[in-house]
Design brief:
Blueprint: H1 2-8, E1 20-21, E2 27-28, H2 31-39, H3 47-55, H4 59-70, H5 74-87, E3 95-100, H6 107-120, E4 125-131, H7 149-152, E5 157-163, H8 175-184, E6 189-193, H9 202-205, E7 210-215, H10 224-233, E8 236-239, H11 247-261, E9 274-277, H12 286-302, H13 305-331, H14 334-348, H15 354-367
Parallel strand pairs: 3-6, 3-7, 4-5, 4-6, 7-8, 8-9
Antiparallel strand pairs: 1-2
Helix pairs in contact: 3-4, 3-5, 4-5, 4-8, 14-15
Length: about 375
Amino acid sequence: MGKKTDHIENSDKYKGLSVKKGSNNVKTTDETSIKNFLKNKKNIKSVKYYVNGILNKNITILSQAITLIESKLPEQQNKAQQIIEACLPYSGKSIRIGVTGVPGVGKSSFIESLGTNLIKQKNKIAVLAIDPSSEISKGSILGDKTRMETLSAQKDAFIRPSPAAGSLGGVAKKTREIIILCEAAGFNIILIETVGVGQSETAVKSMVDFFLLLMLSGAGDELQGIKRGIMEMADLIAITKADGNNKKKAELAKAQYKNALHLFPKTKSGWTPDVLTCSSLTNYNISEVWNKIINYVNYTKQNNYFYDNRNKQIKYWLQESINNSLKNIFYNNDNIKHKFKELEEAAANNKISPFKAADILIKLFNQTK
């Protein structure tokens, strides 16, 4: 069991880091544990310590560095950024795959099946599983990541659950930075599993090379409202649980989705998205899904879309980082904090419009810079 714990969180190896038990007795960290770990100065090593550990493929040190990145403590942010900067030259050599789909579609089971097959082919797999966040503790609340028991037991697999913390589309804010560290640690395939809430999956698309959408057969018309937008972003659609009595329904769903894809505009990559059926239970067509991903990567590298897309993503995250930083600077300004509550209450009581209140706050901020 210890081996599985090492590759899921390695939290038991953090000196001074308290842990709580999740399902299957696998230990997982919450935000309180992380804060306690970070507050203990003995646990915070030098930038060189973390970088050397990551480059030497030390999973424990990689996990500790990720904990620094995920910290909201201001005093740790500078060190985290220095670690990322030092690892940046060693990143970028992986295939980044986003895996999304509605809850219950079998994302974790699919990732375990695919990841286990890929490790047999001498690949190193990092799974960044984005959990919903508890509104109370702000920590991850799903235990289903611990169901990847076969994959987590592999020495070439690293599974890291991260709380979404209310970020758009269920994507943790720090996921892109964590990708850099995982690549520097030698993981050549990065799988990003999202919550699958069906909204704003552009956040996933903006950090991966390939976007895989998992679908259920016979899920019902209630999902139609979220399908089109995500389907237009998908590079491949896989109908899961195509086994037993469900196989015929999966094949029918495949034909329906293929017909729907013909109605969508041509993709920017020039790639024609396809639809496959698969089963994580029987391993049916899992290798074919991977073949499609490899074909896509080769195709987009030949027409340079692969590299152009990554450059666009870098620019996108530069803008996002600036926006987030400016937002934090604004709301953490002492004068703004004091005035904000006053104007917020006035706006709530219809004494001032929210637009006028915002204008006053921005002008106040400009005066106090």
